[in-house]
Amino acid sequence: MTPPPAGGAWHGPNDAESALMSLVKDATVRIHRPEPGYAPEGSDGDFLGSGFFIAPSWVLTCAHVAMEGRGRQVNVVYKTARGGDAVRVGGTVRAALPEQRPGAGGWPAPDLALIQLLRPVEHPCVYLSERSTGMNRGAYYFAGWADGGAGTLKRLGRECRVVGTVDDWSDGDEQVLIEASQLYAGMSGGPVVDLARGEVVGVLKSRSMDTNGGTAIGVERLRTLPVPAGAATAESDDPYQAVFHAHDRYHADRHNSPVDDEETWADVQRDLGCVAGPALTPQQRVDLLGRLAKLPPPVSTRSLLDILGGLGYGYRTVGVPAPRGWRDGLGVLYDAREGEEALERILRYCMSAITAERPYVVPSTKLAEDALWDWVKETAEDRLRRPFRREMAQLRYQGRYDRGAEHLRTPEPAGEPVRPPRSPSVVVLHLEPRAWQPDQYDWRVVARPSDDDLPVTENYQGTRADELPARLAPSLAKAFRMCDEPDSPAVLQVVVPPALLDLEVEKWELPADGRPLGVQRPVVIRCSDGRPAPSEDGAREREARWNRIHTGPMRAAVLDCDDGMRVPVPVTAELRGQAYETVPVLCRYGGRSDAQSVAGFGRVLEAGYGVVLWRRPRAERAAACTEFHLRAVDTVDGTGVADRLPQKIQELRKGVREGRPDMFWSDGIALVYGKPQSEPPDPFLQAP
């Protein structure tokens, strides 16, 4: 904190320090043991300790806190806003260092654990340092939960100082000694933030019984998490890379969002007067780390060290965990000398990241490489001389960065057929609101185990929306039995007018099976629209578009969001001019009550698109949406052909249901899938 002037009284933290402390407290959570009759606000004996959000759906805490749960299961409780209500979310311990406590006594260092949340929720995250040596002597601030008296738990924050270590500074499992005036039971697992740099550098481990102090562990010790035995095939294969990529994308997304007015960590770091190494501002750093985090990680630590060595820079091996990710390598470069040379080294490092061997490649990798090159090019043009800029351009397009020789370790695509040998059967559910009773629906169920339709049942007496799942359960169950095959459940195609797009049939639960329909099987939407039949040219165009996405690669195109800002869906003529392989993605769909969303969706359907991906509106969803764009592109482009998309959407829904954070981005995702009709379908017969 700001020291008092000589001979004067200290008046507390300045505005920037106060903002930093608020950001830290907002992300600090408490950990509880799951028990029946749990009271979210009570100090009732199941309180285990503190923790803090470090990435969407990830909590960092101490192993001795997290492993006291029930079978690695814990409850995470946090405040939705300052002074807001407490929210409880289940979590599971994904990794602990070490995994078990050897014998009696306290949990040995590093005593860290990662908890994954079991469902998607919106929450803030701290900023974690990327430096290899996080905690040296100086002033820090910590936060945590403790008994505030009268049986309640309170979130507290205090200043502390690092005064030494339990062992030697170079010890591989060093515990940092801290002095603090008030370090209470229950605060273990809370964050320790560097007040000068404005970043979290450690985790509270223990408190002394006879002094005002305790110990902490640097967050760089997370680099010692086990490395997967085999080559990674996806970001989620390595928890370390998954967590820190999500962390860096989160902070870049929030800072660059044009629609979010809340102060970010980079804003506060700027106000504190921080610098990110010798060459970058906090804003430049958070943007760069976000771009690096969209790339696949380095193939190995050895390959990353080779890149750093090729730049003429190594890392201090004694007592410092080796770097594992792109952010770690950037932190190593912070020790470079000041001036242009430091920035040049960072830009060369970025060029190495662009062209490095890949453990895997996803459809968005090329976009990530281009985005990182744009950053290098713009930064060099703004701050460096022409000869260096020319060198960067040559590295991008020539010599050892020849684009035909990139990513040599990328696995070859699996030898699967372009199309599955047999398309799955379909159960069709037609729903139509009654003209004179719009809150009630007529319906019919049709089984389509092959090319022929087999009517199952129908009802034209009107059924309220809340009664539909129970009324339809027997008919749907019968149709599913007619169409399902082992390991190949029939697709449920829900045919509704555009006004009913908000009906979340994928969440319905049949009485015989508590799982939602969208988890049991693929559930897609087809729009029954009363628009006039298209012209002859329009019909041919729709047929060509449908055939193209079913025989060759697809390309996702986000139509209603640009650089984080909501934009109108293009006019119909422009939509018809899109390439035939285009699959529209709607990021900002606001539901039937939002006129702009309804009109935009209508234009997409009118233009003849039979496959549309969108996400349903959620009140708690954050304004920033870069992660959704990135993953939607990977999902559509990576699926290959359109008739695999329904099964892919089912996999994502299952992942959300099973608590897989790498799939939480898809919460609320929906798919229109149905060949556009060349003629309007037959209407329901309704009584006069």
From TrEMBL:
Family annotation (Gene3D superfamilies): 2.40.10.120
Give residue ranges for domain vWA-MoxR associated protein C-terminal.
439-675
Among the Pfam families in the record, one is Trypsin_2
Q: Which domain of life is it from?
A: Bacteria
In residue numbers, the region (Disordered) covers 402-423
Task: Please give the name of this protein.
Answer: Trypsin-like peptidase domain-containing protein
